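Progress report, Aim 2. The chain analyzed during this reporting quarter is listed below.
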Amino acid sequence: MKYSLLSIVSNFIVIWFLVRINVSIFEKYINTDGKTKALFGLIELQYIYKYYFLSIILVSFIFLCYAYKKNEDIVVKIAALISLGLAILSIFINFWKWFK
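Predicted structure tokens for the chain:
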């Protein structure tokens, strides 16, 4: 059960950091004027480092594969799989755009 728990913990750490990044992007968007909002994609490029979290997600996926290999508890494995999906979605979907 330790590999699936490691996967869950690492996924939630990634999700927490990505939520903070999206909040920071949203705050910058709110504080900009109209001309800058038109070219906000250039400002958003400052946060390209959020894709580095894919390496942590890859490690989490490896932990999840070990959990399936070791036949750990199915409920914890499913929770790890769901948190892995949420972490991947939170990288590629810009949640801050929903609140503009």
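The chain has one domain: 2-95. Residues 2-95 form one domain. These observations will guide the mutagenesis work planned for the next reporting period.
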